[in-house]
Structures are given as C-alpha cells and as structure tokens.
Amino acid sequence: MNPFLNRKYIVGGIFGLIILIFILRLFFLQIIDQSYKSSASNNVLRYVTQYPARGLIYDRNGQLLVYNEAAYDLMILPNQMAEFDTNQLSSLLNLTKEEIKQRLTKAKRYSRYKPSIFEKQISAETYAPLQEKLFMYKGFFTQTRTLRRYPEKTAAHVLGYVGEVNDNITKNDSYYNSGDYIGISGVEKFYEDVLRGKKGVEIYLVDVHNRIKGNYKKGRYDTAAVHGANIVLTLDAKLQAYGELLMTNKIGGIVAIEPSTGEILTLVSSPTYNPELLIGRERTVNYRKLKNDTLKPLFDRPLMAQYPPGSTFKTMNALIGLQEQIITTATTYPCLHGYYAGNFYMACHNHKNNLNLIESIQHSCNAWYANEFRAILDHTKYGSFENAYETWRNYVLSFGFGKKLGIDLPNEKMGYIPSISYYNRVYGEGRIRSLNIISMAIGQGELLMTPIQMANMTAIISNKGYYFAPHVIKKLPEKFNEKLMPYMVQRFSKIDTTYFDPIIEGMSLVINGLDGGTARNAKIKGIEVCGKTGTAQNPHGADHSIFIAFAPRENPQIAIAVYVENGGFGGTWAAPIASLMIEEYLTDTITRTWYQDYIINANLLNVSKKE
Description:
By secondary structure, the protein is an alpha+beta fold. Among the domains are: about 70-75 and about 100-145, no CATH class; about 235-285 and about 300-600, Beta-lactamase (3-Layer(aba) Sandwich). Helices cover about 35% and strands about 20% of the residues. The chain contains 21 helices and 20 strands. The strands form 6 sheets. Strands 2, 3, 4, 5, 10 and 16 form a 6-stranded mixed sheet that branches. It has a 5-stranded antiparallel sheet with strand order 12-11-20-19-18. α14 runs parallel beside α19 (about 500-510). Mean pLDDT is about 90; it is low at about 35-40.
C-alpha cells in the first residue's frame, strides 16, 4: 500500500473536521446564540421607556390639588460608553468627580447592557445646557419623567408622596423596574393603580455619536404611554387650609365629616409639612429632616394617634344606659363636687346637684357617669360582671371603635377597647369589678381612640344611629367604580334611633344652654351647634383638649372632632377651633375675626411638662 495515500486521507479528514467545526460554530453563533445579535442591536437601537403622567387630583369643588411638572432622568448604558470630559459633566450636573465615579461603578454593577439612572429628576433649567452637549457623552441619554406639584401646599398627609421603588417591590410586582416611581403614602399609595397609568416604549435608531437618527421601523413596534386617571377627593381645600392655619403651633388633629355620606371634608394633622419638600432631588434630605423632627410632622395623627376620648365618651355611655333601660332621661345621681366610693374619689367641677341625663351632658358631670357606668356593669340582669361588660363592649364596638373603619388611606390604627380576657390577665380570673375600671365612665383608663373614630361617633349621633365608612375619594373613572362600593354601604350601631334625641338635646345645651354649658364659646349666631367637650388626662404633660360637634342640628352638614394635645379643658382650645371650622364651612365667612386671630397666634408647643 502506498503510504502517501493514507497520509492524504488523514490530512483530508483533518481539514474536513476543521471545516465542520467552523460550520457548526457559525450555526451556533448565527442561529442559536443571540448574544452577538443582541449586542449589535444594542449598538444601534435604544429602548426608551415612556413614563405616563400620573393622574391629577382635585378637591370636591374642582380645585386642583396635585399636578405634574416635567423633569428628566439622565440614563446610562455602560457597554456603549466612551471616554468623556468628567470636569464638564461635573459642572453640568453640579456633581463632584467622586460622585460621578461612584455612579459609573454602580451602573456597571447593575448591568453593562441595560440602561439605569445616572442622575434623576433633572430640572428643565439644568436639562437645557445638558441636552446641547449630550452628543459628547456616548452611552448617555435622557428620558422624560414628571414631578408632582402642589399649588395649595396643604393636605400633605392625605395626598401622600411619590418615591422610587425598592427591591422588594420590583421582585413582587412585574410592572415596576428599578428607578420607577410609586405612591409611598396617602392617596398616592392607596390609589396607585388608578393614578399611575401605563408605561409605553419607543425604539430609536442611534448613530456612532449616540445621537438619535429616528424611530426604528417608523415606530411600528412602539407602544404609547397611557396617562394616569384623574381623581376627585371629598376634601374641601379651603376648609383644609383653614384647619391647618388654626392648628399653627399646636399638636393634634381635626377630622370633619359630611354625616349623610361619610365623605371627609378635612383631615388635619398638626404639625404638618409642605408636600413639596418630598419631591425632586432633595426629597431624601428633607425626609430625613422631617423624620428627625421631635414634633413628628410625618406622623398622621387623625389616623394613627390613639388617645383617650375623655368626656366626649359620656355620650356613648349615656346611649348604652338608655338602650339597656338601666336609666331614663329622668334619672338623677348626686354630685357633691365628685364621686365617692369608699376610699376612692373622682373629682368633678362646680355645677348644681342631682342632674338628670340631659343636664349631665350639658354640664359634663363625672359623678353622674360614674354612678351610671357602675349601674350598667353591676346590674343583676346580666348574671355576671363578665356578661355585663361584654354587653357594654359590643355596643361600643358597633360605633366603629376598637377596629379600623376602613378609610381609603394607609396606616389607620384600630384604637383599643379592652376585652374581658385582658382584665382577667391583669386582675386574675373573675376578680375584676366595676370600681377597678370606673375611669372608663368618663373616657379614661384603657380606652384609646383615633380622632377619625371620634368624628365618626359624632356623625353617628347626628344621624341617630347609622354611618358610612369615612373616605376621601369622591369620584373615580367608571372602570374603577368598584373601589367606591365599600363607602356606599350604610352601617348601623346597636342603639335604637329613638334614644339619640335626649343626647342631642344635651349636646345642644352644652353650647346654647341659657343656664350655661361647657362650651358656650362655640356658639355661632344663626346656627344651632351640638357638641361635647372632653379633657383627657395626660401623664406626660398638660391635659389634652377635646371637642366633638355637628351642625346644624336638623339635617346636619358637618360632624367634627378636634384634639389639641396639652390644650387643657375641651372648651379652651378644641371647642373654639371646631366652632370656627363649622362657621367657615357653613357660611363661608368668619364673623368672629378677633377670636380667629387669637387662636391662630396661640402657641401651645411650649406648654410645660409635668415632672
């Protein structure tokens, strides 16, 4: 055999194998492996997310509360970057060289092939000179965003704010990507799916200088962004601003409700803050300042602060006593400047002795309610103290206490109505007695309620037994109307309608009684206001001033609760604030301007603390 012939076959086989390897490799690269194609496309195509403008927010009268203003994000694609003038970019963006270096490193760590934000929320003033020189920065481009603006600078806690999504959100919701914005609090959070709209995308052809040369395939594959839906709130912007003004230099909250609908007219948390502090590039710095403020301006007091209701709760105990037929309107109890039971003494202020039910509300007699509360809990018809207490507690719960009312805002607290099991843990099984918890007769002890719960109780009294869950949304686009359904359901307390009339009469005399009442300074000419004062003991400082009211007496248009921390007696600060709010809402005019100025100029932030 010729040895050269075998060598020829071997060499030919080697070349054939090499050719086969090249063919297979080319097939893999061109057909199977898309990375090179993707890389090539990324060098000529730019995918720019089109962010929709968020929906606008209006008050009940059509006044604009939140709108949008254009801003720009500077984006970066690390794999398209080239050397650039760091000094110039530093000057354009007002960043240090070190900050630029850190952001470049962060972008590369995120992805070399996906765009990420290099500098967010650039103003129109900064954007103009940057855009002129952007062709010099290969791998950089801008995309349009929007910032929220607040023409009235009020209702910060209700409106809430928008912020960047975190990793937890992007992992659990495919709609959001890193760098997207989302409602963080308030209406912005609760109605995020309504306000956010729908993102779109535009695909552009870019040249070697990173300049856009036109739409890819004439925009065939683009998708348009869909503007977020506009919403209308129940708030009265003018009344909201007035409430915030009256609460200047005071700590507490105001909640006003339209009784017939449950619509919230105003929700004031004080101290408050300018909502524009939490937008733009300074949001993080401002948020930190607000969070560290000792007065806690970020704390939403109407929904989250849990206070004892004080003497405003006497209306609740009176209703329970009537419903259970433990008392009548003619029932009287003695008051010798307080209530005595063995070594126990509960003080009361000066008024005539042996008041009936209506007078007990008018003059807020502690002794009357101590006697009545014990008469309920110690009555033999219940068979045991435990049964009596649970009967009493169920009535209280039916007014929305001890649970969330379901307002369409985040972070609502439940308050606290202790159960019998709680007292069994504290005192021992079956050892609790009415005298142990007698402070609850006058709204003290373990009772805790939020201002919105107290306003809701006031609305129930004005409606003689029913309420609608308090809410801040008035109008939504038709496709979102199912979100309104929970607030159209009429809810009833366990008290019969007939028992509310004497309570309302007593609340009217609190303000309009010829022989005096605890809130005569809340009287408004031409309007019959019905109210109840409260003073809540505070172990950390001066007592809290509380007042609930509704007006007018017939066909009430507004129910209100005011809570002023360290304000002393209910009639001192809370009552006049509520009265001015009612007058403003019902008449659109303040006749007692001297009183208004006195309230506005009062500073209660420096009330001395108890030792």
